[in-house]
Amino acid sequence: MTERTPEEISGKLKRILEERGNSKDIDAMLAQYPSIPKFVSPYLHAIYFKNLEPHRAAGFMDEAITELQSDPICRSSKDFVNKATYHIIYEPFVKQLWSQAGEIYANVDRFDDSVEVYKKHQLYHCRIKGDDVSRGLLSFRPISKYALVDLINNQLTVCSPRVMNDPFDTLLLSWGDYHLRKKQGRKYVEPYVQSMEYFRIRSFSRIPDDGDATKILSNVLMWSHYADNQYGMCIEYHFSDGFTKTDDKRVLRFRNVIYKANEEPVSLDKSAINTDLSLLTKMDAWKKEDEARLISYIPDVEGQFVPIKLDSESYIKSIYFGIRCSNGDMATVRNVLKGQKVNFYQMKPNPTDIFNPIIDSVDKD
After folding, report:
1. Pair 293, 231 in one domain
2. What is the C-alpha to C-alpha distance for residues 258 and 266, in angstroms, rounded to an integer?
């Protein structure tokens, strides 16, 4: 087998379907590939019967998933020896298998099974390359019990887009709600949209390439919108490369937001939606936030808010307190972070340039 084998097999299956061949043609075609993984045959039969005999298709898909999950190469695909084989032969089929399974199970009213395999589809397809955040990220927050719990537990809390302040953010949910309203007999739409509810986000502002955070820290709208009208704080984080490592149960990625001008129409009337559009696209009006996002997909945890522990190489570098932040709140935050190598600053009015505040160091006790 070569790296072209999956493409050849998919092309031959397409011809069988177009020419209205029968399932025996699939067996004859696969006989040319004696080393093909066992899950491929029932998987192709499931696709063949998807619209002809839905229950039979579901039975073949059950068999395909069982074979896939018991395959020793699939289970050890991270090992160096098996990585190339998995990437070349297995991955092209696995990329499509979970979404096909979701549709097939939905067609026979196995809603819960459809949701579960769509979760696997989402896990697989959101393993995109992340953006560089090595310069650090800023998080504007009120000094609330929720912010303090994050500091105490050395964690970040990601949230569902449904509780974010922009009704068009994210377009993932807008797209899902639109297609639920017009699903027109497509049973797979509801479980697919349900699987999207496990995307959660944490928003940050990027530190510019030159490493100077002054421009963002001087942005009065950031303090007003997200840091309790200057009574709150801004946290500067450093994240290690290892923080966004992926495993079989979750995916974490940092990505930069994409801003679209209002005159560029964005349509939800699409049969599919990619990550850039669904999770990262916002109106140009938000551009001054210069936002980067931690995109998380954690399908085994319920709830709109989910805490994520920082790894041992990630840490808080600095805390910037707002102009109106009280001495008591500053003392509370400093006490929580006592013993850590955190720099503390406070924003203060600049009499000679009032719209550009001074970043003043707060003496450590």
Report:
1. yes
2. 13
> In whole angstroms, what is the distance from residue 248 CA to residue 253 CA?
14
Same domain, 189 and 99: no
pLDDT winner (highest mean) among 21-25, 180-184, 207-211, 270-274? 21-25
Q: Does residue 341 sit within a domain?
A: yes
DSSP 252: E
Within this chain, do residues 95 and 145 fall inside the same structural domain, yes or no?
A: no
Domain that holds residue 79: 5-109
Residues 168 and 275 in one domain: yes
- How much is the mean pLDDT over the chain? 91
292/150 Cα distance (integer angstroms): 19
User: What is each CA distance from 33 to 3, 26, 27, 103, 131, in whole angstroms?
Assistant: 13, 11, 10, 27, 39
What band does 142 get if pLDDT is binned at 50, 70 and 90? Answer: very high
Q: Do the strands 258-260 and 251-256 form a parallel or antiparallel pair, or are they unpaired?
A: unpaired
Residue 217 contacts residue 233 (beta carbons within 8 Å): no
Q: Domain total for the chain? A: 2
